[in-house]
Write a structure and sequence with these properties.
The protein is mostly beta strands and 422 residues long. The chain has 2 domains: 100 residues, Ubiquitin-like (UB roll), CATH 3.10.20.310; 317 residues, Beta Barrel (Porin), CATH 2.40.160.50. It contains 3 helices and 24 strands.
Length: 422
Amino acid sequence: MARYLIVFFYICCNSLFALGQHVLSDRQKIRIDSIDIKKNWRTREAIVREELGFKAGDSVNQGMLDTMVIRIWNIGNFAKVGYELDTLFNGNYVLEVMAKDALTVLPILSFSGNREDWSLSAGMSDNNFLGRNIKFDISGTIGTNAKSFNLGINIPRQLLYKNMSVNGGIMYGQGKNFRYENRKQVSVIAYTKKQISGGISNPWHKDFKYRFSPNFGWSVFQHVTDTSLVETDIPFAGNYSINYLSISVGESIGYIRRMRHQKDGWRASLGIGAGIGLDKHSPFYYSIGSGIDYHKLFNKVVQFSAEYSTGYTSTTIPSLLFYQGANAVKGILTGEISGQSYYTMYLGWHFTYINRDWFAMEQSVYLNWGNGNDRYMDLYFTKPLYGVGTGFYFNIPMIPWLSMRVYFTYSGQNSNWFRLEL
């Protein structure tokens, strides 16, 4: 008798405490009776719950669970995301959601570029301030083309009305830009700059389905030219002081799923801006920009990416023109693509050979090209600058700021073949 009691007690305990994971079929829908958020240390539970898309007592299918994982990944502060769907002895379903924090309090100490075109930044950033997904950063930058101080904050949609997010920032510094013809410097502009800015993103979104919800931005800025900032025989592009109120509106469609450094999905965007002069020396101008990017993650290793970006501005003021560099087309110097209009394109295959919590490594093989001009249609009828090469990306997902990118690119004669980003 005692033996049967022991067996019965063992079976009851296993039924009550041992959880059995379930995988739903495509059409199966079940009621979630309780939700348990398993996190390790920082992000507030409410932030994760805001991304579930449902609550305890709701019925869900497999598609809703997959979307939940995507949304939690896209918060951007986790090194590992997953879930288990389990049952208790009474048949109730328990959803255990795991969101493992990455280290998002980080020093900003980054370098990008090479001997001819470089940038060094230092400061402090927190992408998950107070565990509420608030982004706050303070930094300073020195480099070939700029010296600046920046302070920025972004309050995320999880804390605001109908998924909107708001941001703001201040910046003070110096800028310097060369223009090129046939890859040789022909003019330069140097100036001090002051700016205060803000914005609202997705003010009416309620979910991740598309509905018209443009982003709004504004800034007040001043540029004052200063010839003492450059020591060169290259002609100075002009002397002026301008003051503007800039306003912009933009919208995007599509959705990109992010899992650590990997991407899957597509997105297209369009933005329109206007510069309203605050004095007689600052004439009105308008600008327009658009882009589309597509990423296909075939499996855990292989990803294909294609990107296109273009822009036009009506202003002829030198410090307000477009100046594109190696971030747009690998292997070129900042300003080799410049003017009132530009376009850039990128095609690349990405191979993630290692993707663990404490180390990930990706190799890319890419073709990159683009052009700049003061007349938009001339962009597509003149020979573009190009770059072809390979890059290596090393990172620690648990500590996102510990990363390094190395690019080896050939972009024709006098190509800037090596670029390092830390």
